[in-house]
Amino acid sequence: MEKITASVRLKKTRGERNRLLKEGKVPGVMYGKNIEPVAVAVNARELESLVERGLKLFELSVEGKTQRVLVKELQHHPVTGKLIHVDFQVVESGRKIRQLVPVELYGEPAGVKAGGILEHGLSEVTVECLPEDLPEFIEADVSKLEVGDCLRVKDLELPPGVRVIEDPESIIALISAPRDYVEEEEETTTSAPEATA
Fold first, then answer.
1. Is the pLDDT of residue 120 over 90?
2. Signal sequence: where?
3. How many domains, the chain?
4. Please, which of 34, 58, 122, 133 could form a disulfide with 129 given CB 3.0 to 4.6 Å?
5. Residue 86: what pLDDT?
6. CATH code: domain of residue 72
7. Strands across the sheet with 171-176, in order?
8. DSSP H helical segments within the chain, as ranges?
9. pLDDT recorded at residue 197
10. How far lies 52's CA from each of 42, 106, 110, 145, 171, in Å?
11. For position 56, what pLDDT does the model report?
């Protein structure tokens, strides 16, 4: 399991936060069940490297003590997009967690080959599982979807030990008819002669 080191922040002022950001560090907080919240700071590049690879569960070493943590929330600057704060949740072995996991679509839908349009629904789903079973992402095969078909949460193939906490009927992806096809159908319906008695 990946591991990064954090230092304890003694000050929690705006000036201290700005100083840390200038030094290439990200201020954050580590918390968990029966654990007092601890203000920490981590190397921005190390954290961004893990996050970019989809890793949200790793070990965090604070003053020589290592905890397994989950990245619960990331805050970015609204203008620059720079990472400015992180929340770490300490996880316990044997205790299930809930976490947002991205859904990655793969395959070229049959309906798209026929001229349809692939539309995206949920791009992330909340899953419940043990920390060691947490997937980086969930793959969804859309290659068999025809025009008018959709892939729902209940259709997802999940790894062992993982359960999705979402409405089973929520749409992940659907194949809609091309606009000109819809317009042609509407014109045909409108121009069809009415049956006379």
1. yes
2. none
3. 2
4. 133
5. 94
6. 2.40.240.10
7. 117-120, 171-176, 150-152
8. 14-22, 44-52, 110-113, 179-191
9. 46
10. 16, 20, 31, 30, 26
11. 82
